[in-house]
Amino acid sequence: MKKILYIMSLSFLFFSCTQEMTLPSKDASELEIASSDGVTLLNKINPSAETTLIDREGEYDFVFTSNKPAASESYLTLASRTELTNLVTEYNRHLLTTEYAILPETNLEVNAVKIEAGKSTADVKLTIKNFDKLAFGFYLVPFKVNFEGKTAIHMVKVFKDGAYSALSPNSKKAMPTLASNCVLRTEPMKMIGYIETNDWDIRNLANFVLKGSKKPVFDYIVIFAANMNYDPIKKRRYLHFNDKLEPFVKDAVRYTKPLKDRGIKLIVDILPNHQGVGFYNFQSYNEALDFVKELKMWADKLGIDGFDIDEEYANYSVLPSLPTKGNQSVFYFMRAFKDIMPDKLLTLYDYGHSLSSFSEDEDTKKKVNDFIDLNWSDYNITSGPRAGISNHKYGNLSVEGNLRSYYFSSPTVYGPTLRSRAQSNVTNCYGNFMIFNIRGTEIKPNNSGVSTAAQSLSYITQVFYGEDAEFNGKYYVGQNGL
């Protein structure tokens, strides 16, 4: 398979116009909040926040604190524009990106701050303005102040996004009108989009919205992929993010915010990696539990909403000491997953496994349907859910958008096929439709502002929701530079 000028309101505030990864013990927060000699600059509403993330115009309150009172009447001074620009450059370097830009001077105002003799704290007000004139993207305000030779810094991130109306339990997409005989259908059709992160950026899928309602087209976005690797020294499997995913690991909020704001769930595909471990050779429930605890650590750290079982490329012969255990091994994993993360999604890609409607956990006698939240077929498969998954959790006729000039590059040619496949899922009372890896070259709007992928997706969204799709927001360049 898947083959924010700092404009000073008072003149006395000085402004100068002239590889293998494991869970890090420290991350970008080292650059986001810093103090020197006992001074801090914190968000007044949320003083424990490592950064302040802003996505609208308004006033924001901060508190400067020193562990020593001012010897005489003093003023906070802001670092020079040059120094602030250098901080943005260093921040980008630390996070392996060039995406953060310094907020333009016309979009920010900071009040002047006087600290009276004998005082050690002061309120600082930061105002974001002219937000409607900002281009889409992420901006950085390295909020750095100096006081009696001491320095405090707090990173403020400003995010300007495209237009959307978020999904929620009280705000859903429309139900399909086709095949109203599906009496058990209680939810709108769900759209699942995988992204090959070695090439493309997951956020682009979030910017597909329905033209009228502005609801997101995709309900779930799947990162393809993190790997199930094996540590021969510790003799345990672990989750591995390759170098292309390192920016996500270092600064997950930049990737997850556009999704979470829209109500989209983020799932990480777990793909074996030719190292002799996969979903079929967990030797016991406890071994599966150990791996799932690591998954939970990553989910909590990065804001992941679920994980996808993708049984490929295990190469079990590499580790004869861990023989395969049949379907019971998969049940060990599924049971451990729901025991540790009952609030997280567990999904299943129908490929490489031998689970069926007859399969059951030998300990609990539960079936696959008791553990799996969503399931979709391999490409072009028309048959129903072979693992006994309920129809409302299932989707067939999955589409590979990975190939050049395939499905999403020529809407008039391939659109009817996409529409037919969408109609098939509705007619058969299935609940979802999976698309793997739409190429960024088809997603990116052309000089006329038209996304051919959006045109193609419209053949699907018209069937599911009665609306066309559009690309609305910033296009994010992928790891391949396109």
Strand content: 25-35%
Helix fraction bin = 10-25%
CATH topology of the largest domain: TIM Barrel
User: Which secondary-structure class do the elements indicate?
Assistant: alpha/beta
Protein name: DUF1735 domain-containing protein
Organism: Sphingobacterium bovistauri
Domain BT-3987-like N-terminal: 58-146
InterPro entries: BT_3987-like_N, GH, Glyco_hydro_18_chit_AS
Key features?
six-stranded mixed beta sheet, Glyco_hydro_18_chit_AS, ten-stranded mixed beta sheet, DUF1735 domain-containing protein, alpha/beta, globular, Immunoglobulin-like, 2 domains, 482 residues, GH
Can you describe what's shown?
The chain is α/β, with parallel strands linked by helices and 482 residues long. It folds into 2 domains: 7-160, Sandwich (Immunoglobulin-like), CATH 2.60.40.1740; 190-471, TIM Barrel (Alpha-Beta Barrel). The chain has 10 helices and 25 strands. The strands form 5 sheets. Strands 14, 16, 17, 18, 19, 20, 21, 22, 23 and 24 form a 10-stranded mixed sheet that branches. Strands 2, 4, 7, 8, 12 and 13 form a 6-stranded mixed sheet that branches. Strand 16 and strand 17 (236-240) form a beta hairpin. Helix 6 (285-302) crosses helix 7 and helix 8 runs parallel beside helix 10. The longest helix is centred in the middle third of the chain and has 18 residues, at 285-302.
